[in-house]
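Quick one: structure for this chain?
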Amino acid sequence: MQLNDFLKHTSEWLKGTGPNSDIVISSRIRLARNLDKLSFPHWANKTQAVQALNTVIDGVSKVNYLKGSTVFKLADMDGVDKQLLVERHLMSLEHAQKTENKALIVDSEEIVAIMVNEEDHLRMQVMQSGFNLHEAWGIINGIDDSISKELNYAYLPDWGYLTACPTNTGTGMRGSVMLHLPALVMTRQIDRVLAAISKLSFTTRGLYGEGTQATGNFFQISNQVSLGHSEEEIIENINGIIRQIIDQENQAREVMVSRNRAILEDRINRSLGILKSARIISSQETTELLSMVRLGADLGMLKDIDRRRLNELFITTQPAHLQKLENKKLSTEDRDLKRAELIRSRLNL
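Got it. Here's what it folds into:
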């Protein structure tokens, strides 16, 4: 699969389907694993890093589920191509930097992505659309079992899987749910909600994960610690928190509709009007306006606007995607022009 092929289909997590998909964009399970008797990536010398890279690629190639997957060696890629993979949530910002002896393995449906030599030798993830952690866990658990037959993991009976960061030791699992919470933001309840979950050992990040701030009313919520908990316990804990947040967002939406429907409809329709007519628009403004339009579609205030199309626009209007669509590097001004043109073409169907 070539990078341009990513632009021709919709990622699984963007499809706008699955449970509670009006609020939950996607669910992700990530597992951290390391190879036995090899230094972790940040401490490995060049010989060890090369050995880890080749060992992981060879082992993964033998797993039936991942046959036909594409291996991207990051040192061979330019900045735009690496940023495209970050924008599609297939790898971290950290992985895109200092790329020597690093790789990304991606299956054809973009359900599975494995970062090689990021913080750990393997960081594998499975993403599903909607509130679907159990399904994501079922897929990644099977893949992990298959890979473990090909690779020797660093593991101790008393500690579990050994990882570069102590908080990941044990199961090595991070569960993450991406939520769209415009009503909690607009009713100024979001800070209270996020403060409450932080006390329960959950962390909140922005649209692109660690090191990013929330924009467009999107929040990623995940567990902070895996040591001392089973995979099932971690999933149930996350599910319990997310269900509460979904309930609070729904309640906030109901209050806004009942008390301020005219104001809300006006804001939603103004947002749609700008997107349909703008000739130049920034990435940040696009995300904020699309958030309001998505809320309008989910509340039934806007007809004939597909949630999947809106989800795709959140990604395809990002800088690297625009440049891949044009097949050339674009200045900030040119990207703003191209972004507006793309949005008009997709919303004025």
